[in-house]
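Just wondering, does anyone understand what follows?

——
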Amino acid sequence: MNNKAQVFWLVSLRVLIGWHFLYEGMVKLFNPNWSSVGYLLDSQGWFRELFLWFASSPTILKTVDFLNIWGLIAIGLGLILGLFTRVALSGGIALLAMYYLSHPPFIGLRYGLPMEGSYLIVNKTLIELAAMAVLVVFPVNQTIGLDGLIFRKSLSK
């Protein structure tokens, strides 16, 4: 990619999404009372039964909470640093897909938890997921990021 403006904005998008993931993970990590149980129990999506099952057992719930917190942090750091960017993007897309499937913004669904930015099918979760897909298609991780340093050195050997 030769256009500096394109690279700048794609890297900016990657870092901003990374910041969002990292922040969400850190907030959950440092809140001793945080649990995904309320979110899981509030699910109204196609896979409602799966999300209710996640909330049904303390062991499963602890695992889900651990994976959610540390997944958010790892994805965030990966995107900010440009480190294992493809893995971070894939993980982020999968995580956002789970959030979207748990709480789709469809007419007639009522949630006990307040929803932010729901506009009939499209919500901020779906928009962020699409932005991450754009970053997969237009990778700038080897232009600006640690991936470029790591993989350029390993390719030159």
